[in-house]
Amino acid sequence: MIDIALHHTNKKYRIAALSYISDPDVLTQIALHDRAGDVRKAAVSEIKDANVLLHIALHDPVKKVRFAAVERLKDKSIEINDAKTMLSGIPFYKDQEGYVRSAIVSRLDDQEMLTEIALHNRNWRIRCAASSELNDKDILKHTAHNDDEEVVRQAASKKMYELERRIANNKNMPIYEFDLSVREYNILHRSGVSTVGDLTNLTIEEFSRFPQLNMSEKTEIRENLNKLGLDFSEEQ
Question: Own/partner pairs for 199-206, CB < 8 Å, 24+ apart?
Fold first, then answer.
């Protein structure tokens, strides 16, 4: 199959052979050097190396091949070890429309950097990608009301809705599904806490009065709430 994928004169046969090839070096060779854009595009769909995909997204002469690489870079199954460094290494003149940078931005997990991009980047595609990854409701609300581009405002509004829905689902979670030890569960359950929402309805002062829980257990429970985007009530 490798010989067919590399050397057959009919591109349809070369494309068909790709699905039987697992050698990343062969796939990379084809994605970079096959004479037919359709074959390179098909090979891109099999590539798992983010650096190879970035090179193709920036340098392939055929737009549909570059776009295929961009879509692969958005795929969270493709491992990117340092999205920040990758983003900073993309020259503007190679990505003036922002397709490649927006793909890398969609892989960032640094909320501070995403906030900076969502608020201040000049490219609407990149701001849109950053807004879709933000978890700060205040920044999303600001963007949804104030960004100059409707598509960015829509992206921020959509992410706000997703966050609100996720928070509602998390609050409805039965306490036995929450990340608790058996001891912690028993203490909370005996105190009338049946859902995560019941827990978040407590103020931090009320929660601190649970005498059976030690300090490390209380800290752990709050950290697990924070992982769900939740915290104790601020109402007194």
Answer: 199/175, 199/225, 199/232, 200/171, 200/225, 200/230, 200/231, 200/232, 200/233, 201/233, 202/232, 202/233, 203/232, 203/233, 203/234, 203/235, 203/236, 204/232, 205/236, 206/232
Contact assessment for residue 143 and residue 119, using Cβ atoms and an 8 Å cutoff: yes
Domain spanning 172-227: CATH superfamily: 5' to 3' exonuclease, C-terminal subdomain (1.10.150.20)
The H-or-E segment that residue 3 falls in is helix 2-7
Residue type, 18: L
**Domains of the chain, residue spans:** 1-77, 80-169, 172-227
* pLDDT score of 235 more than 90: no
Q: Coil, helix or strand for 66?
A: helix
pLDDT interval class at 209 (50, 70, 90): confident
Residues 98-140: pLDDT tens digits?
999 999 999 999 999 999 999 999 999 999 999 999 999 999 9
Q: What angle do CA 134, 223, 174 make, to 5 degrees?
A: 90
* 53 and 78 Cβ atoms separated by less than 8 Å: yes
